[in-house]
Amino acid sequence: MASQHFAETVVQVQVTHQSWREARIEGEIIASSYRWRFRWHFLQGHLSVSPTLGRALIFEPLNRFLERSDYQLEAGGTYQFTVKGKF
Predict the structure, then answer these.
(1) Rounded-to-integer distance, Cα 60 and Cα 78, Å
(2) Cα 37 vs. chain centroid, distance in angstroms?
(3) Residues 42-79: pLDDT tens digits?
(4) pTM score, whole prediction
């Protein structure tokens, strides 16, 4: 049986601001030639990503990453995760 190879894209997340008092994390996402800004209100589970160009590609994978990693993320930190698919 031949193994299938799926394209993958490494996504870089840079946390630029974190406030426990406001329950908010902000930062930048870079995947291939795309670049977005995000704001995540983690107690409410509300994520916003801008600009809208390509947002549908990253929204769900970023949301899963943030939910899984929220208490480990720190302002000034750079993190990575992999998305199945080519951007």
Answers:
(1) 19
(2) 9
(3) 899 899 999 999 999 899 999 999 999 978 999 999 99
(4) 0.86
Please give the residue range of the domain that contains residue 71. 8-84
Q: Decide if 1 is inside a domain.
A: no
CA distances from 30 to 12, 51, 76, 82 (A): 5, 12, 15, 12
**Residues across the chain:** 87
Residue 72 lies inside a defined structural domain of this protein: yes
Q: Which residues contact 15 (CB under 8 A, 6 or more apart)?
A: 25, 26, 27, 73, 74, 75, 76, 77, 78, 79
Quick one: pLDDT band at residue 85, thresholds 50, 70, 90? confident
